[in-house]
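anyone seen this seq b4? input:
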Amino acid sequence: MKYPVKHTRVMIIIHGRSEYFICEAIKSNLRIKHEIEGKNKGKNSIQITSIRAYLNNGKFKSFASFKRHFQDVESYKKKLCKFKLFIIMDVDDCSTTENEMFKSGEMFKGHWMREYIVPIY
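predicted toks r here
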């Protein structure tokens, strides 16, 4: 019996270790397929001030790079299908301007993934 292919529809970029453990618990309890991205599994934190740099390097830099690293994310004509990228960050260690830009999504303006990003603070 063949089972249908499960595509990744959720991806999470985490701030640090506590967010990593929360996301792992959700992943295990709900048994949904999703990727958790962070520096060294959350051992090193990603700050709001550097999230844009994190998105512009490596895996998230371009559509082609993203698809090379995450082949099971469904796409059609260089658009991701039914996909969301949740970015979980602490907002206590940034300026008010950066905080507002993160919450509104303005921080991701000009990045190819902007329409898929959901900021969580």
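Residues 12 and 86 are 5 Å apart (CA to CA). The beta strands are 10-14, 34-37, 75-76, 79-80, 84-88, 117-120. kinda curious what u guys think
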